[in-house]
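Bench log, entry 3. Co-assembly request; chain sequences pasted below exactly as received.
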Amino acid sequence: MRAHMIGEKLQLGIVGLGTVGSGVYDALMLNQKLLEARAQVSYEVRRVAVRHLERKRTTAVAVEPEKLTTRWQDLVDDEDIDIIIELIGGTTEAYQLVRAALEAGKPVVTGNKALLAEHGSELFALSKQRGTPLYFEASCGGGIPIVQSLQTSLICNKVKSIVGIINGTSNYILTSMARKKIPFQQALAQAQRLGYAEADPTLDINGWDAAHKGLILAMLAYGTPLSPDKIDVRGIEDIEPEDFEHAARLGYTIKLLVVIKHHPESRALELRVQPSFVPEDHLLSKVDDVFNAIAVNGDIVGETIFYGRGAGKNPTSSAVVSDVVLAMRECRLTGYHTGFHTYESDDVEKAEVLAPDDTVTPFYVRFRVQRDRCGVIADIATAFSTHGINISATSSSDGAPDENGVHWNSLVFILHACRWGQLREALQELSRLNTVKDRPVVLRMETFQDT
Amino acid sequence: MRAHMIGEKLQLGIVGLGTVGSGVYDALMLNQKLLEARAQVSYEVRRVAVRHLERKRTTAVAVEPEKLTTRWQDLVDDEDIDIIIELIGGTTEAYQLVRAALEAGKPVVTGNKALLAEHGSELFALSKQRGTPLYFEASCGGGIPIVQSLQTSLICNKVKSIVGIINGTSNYILTSMARKKIPFQQALAQAQRLGYAEADPTLDINGWDAAHKGLILAMLAYGTPLSPDKIDVRGIEDIEPEDFEHAARLGYTIKLLVVIKHHPESRALELRVQPSFVPEDHLLSKVDDVFNAIAVNGDIVGETIFYGRGAGKNPTSSAVVSDVVLAMRECRLTGYHTGFHTYESDDVEKAEVLAPDDTVTPFYVRFRVQRDRCGVIADIATAFSTHGINISATSSSDGAPDENGVHWNSLVFILHACRWGQLREALQELSRLNTVKDRPVVLRMETFQDT
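Structure output for the full assembly:
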């Protein structure tokens, strides 16, 4: 690796410009200023190896033709390239590439789970021997930060078990079968139409994609090399709609789980991928569609669960590009544990904290009002309307009489999204009414779809 | 910082031996061989600063009296101490200690959220200026790896929002109120009796504990210093049981949320802690009791959720001790991104992967059997019994006749936990019966409480 001067640009080489490769290239180009601020180093994508020079590209940012090559060897041989990003998939060429890059002292970022499940032990040993880092967050759980977490924030734990839903395609199929009561083949065909299953879905359905990821997690958690023949794998092909009915009756749902369990008494490791009954009161049973989740049970931390999108262009790109940022930081060896780096970028340079009055959500407001007191609803509704607030729904309920025999009712208003400032002023006005008892209970109604 | 030789022991200094301090000390002593293997460095706890020398200790491993001192200055002034672990809480002495340690070039591990919310900007700047790392995973979400994840695996994302349940006490109270329909004061008293709320629960209930954590997360996500007066905070004191009824009727539950949202159009940051309606179809609504969860929405990764225990001796110790391992690794600057380190320790040295036959769970088995065929249930039950498998429940349902007019029924058996080997052999035997059609559907029933 070159010794870098402050101000010099790190040079990146990308191998593979398919779905994930395009996402990674675009993220590196479009978020460049932010990433440079966070990595505290500037960078350039120097070369991109592709299979066919003439193929139409799907990147949002055009790749300059002079950067393209069909030979990955060109990137490994280029002395000026600092970091190699492997995104070609498969286990033959990718294996040659990663070996060659590590031997050339170039840190490698990869998300290739099949490669690491098959050749991980050897590649990790080579990485260690050469002192050249190998980053692979994207290999398990897509954008879910499970690899780093096992390597850092959870590292003091003896891992008692890891139980995960780590194949989005099979989870989508099982979710459809459960909800729509349709047979396996029909759910698979739907998933294929929607792009959630590939034309050849074999590895997703027979459990082997999950098994590859499980092997990597087990190696990380127990610091021991493992090969794919050690894992017991069954797929979801046999399950029929009625199995979901039986499961529901018993308080379960059915998920394809990877289960990694350490048995301290026998010092044995249980390692399997199988469709399983998951109790409905466990969070894993709520993980639906293409989402993934991984429950890690550590002897000190207890149960921790990671949830997110486990596959797809963007989540996988997130993991790859974050690894690239780490690789760049470590090339510079700047101390990055200083809490955070104050930085300026287009996105945050003028960031100001929003005044409470200017925050906007729907609201729930509950008043206690005196029963039989004419016009109190009209008063409240008028105050809202005067301040430009729309009422979405309202309801009331009777209360028991208080010590003076006065009846107080609960009056609930659900308000459309408005500024807190509007509502605050309306409530101030209403506080002067003597028909309203106490100050009302005001709760926000959080919306998540557009956050 | 001293320059370290291979084989030399890193020297740790712990300040504070209260609940978390005791947990950290015990984890460092009891898991020492494993931690040394993972950190690739050996260590020693050299000194421990406490308030009173004579107080009875709650550590599982006795602290040698000669290691104790009442002056934290002794640790900062000790040239042989490499890393300081601050666990005294508060913002006055802790502030002096962390400043002095960073100025002396000693990396600091802390979980002090109030300290970082109040003085973080200054301490992070000092850490950067001196090139001395400051680790603080334990300051937000206890054992949940949110700090490292924002600093590493999610770093390429523009954070669109962070929405979290990050105060266990208030979440416990809200969960009790919702489930038991009891008023706030009663739920609080119960939480205090069970040790989930302190004698003085003010900061948990009025939202400020969550606000401190939210400030730290916002600083990390946006790389910008923030002070506590920037956050809009409301507590849960006003909520009454009937609010949960209204919420449920509308499809919501009530949680105390920290909400951090970036508004790109106005470049403003929304920063607030408030009790809020959470839709029942969002995972955050399922986070009950003392558990915490944090949803991070990144522009590339989409929504990722972290779930676990957000407070308490063990989860907090997990985060502190993991930070200590990172600090030790970085003191040595060994490359640790090689995937995993093959290591041997008492726990894993002889770890062998369990044979599939030896894995034990309860099972669900569904047969298709010919209706009106005498004895089929007896045959199956006998096969199970012969192989030592106990039946926990059974049910059957009628099917339609097939093309030959033969009626096939579904016969479901729920089996108590047994070895897969036992069940496999029983099923093999049953496969020879011509009353059973196809091979049965066999699913595992995962148990989570004891994993």
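Residues 72 and 93 of chain B are 9 Å apart (CA to CA). The mean pLDDT of chain B is 89.
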